[in-house]
Amino acid sequence: MKFWGRGFYTDPVARTPGTPGAPAMCEIFIRANPHSYDTLARSLRLHGVATSVRLECLFWEVLEEIGQRDGLTVNQLISKLYDELFERRGEVANFASFLRVCCLRYLMLQQDGRIPADTRVSISSLDAATVLDGLPPNMADAPPPRRSRGPLLEALIK
Predict the structure, then answer these.
(1) Per residue in 99-134, pLDDT tens?
(2) Cβ(26)–Cβ(14) under 8 Å?
(3) pTM, entire model
(4) 155: which of 21, 80, 132, 143 is 20 to 30 A away, CA to CA?
(5) How far apart are CA 147 and CA 126, in angstroms?
(6) Which residues face 64 on adjacent strands?
(7) How far is residue 18 from each of residues 10, 24, 29, 31, measured CA to CA in Å?
(8) Given CA atoms 34, 37, 39, 40 in this order, what sign does their dihedral have?
(9) What structural domains does the chain harbor?
C-alpha cells in the first residue's frame, strides 16, 4: 500500500454503518495505547541554547528508532535535523511540527519500500535522491538551487 498513491483497498461492508459484524471504523485508531499520545517535553541544546521540545510519546519512539539507525541519541538526531533544516531553509519555524512530519515521512517512506525496514541499515547510507525520486510534488520540495560560481569563475572554467 502506498500512502500517497490512489487505490487503497476498501471493504464496503466494513465501512457501512450498522452492518452486523462490521468493525467500528475508528476502532483501529481509538484502541491506541493512551501512553502513545501522552506528551513529553525533552530538554536539549541547539547551538548552545537550552530549549525544550514537546511531542507525543509515539513520536519520541519513532525519533529514537531513526537515531539508532545511525548511532545517534534522540538529542543528537534532533540537533542534526535542526542544523540541516536551518542550512536549507535559513530559518526554523514550528520545529515540533517539523519533527512530527519527519516521523510520518520516515514511516511512509519505509512502508513504500523507499527506506529499508531493516533498522540495521543506516539512514545516512541511503541516497536521498533515490529515496525521493518519483515522489509526488506535494511530498518533496525541489532540490536547492545550484549556487552560481560567478562570472569570473565561469569564465575561468570555460
Answers:
(1) 999 999 999 999 999 999 999 999 999 999 999 999
(2) no
(3) 0.74
(4) 143
(5) 24
(6) none
(7) 17, 9, 19, 20
(8) positive
(9) 12-128 (1.10.3990.20)
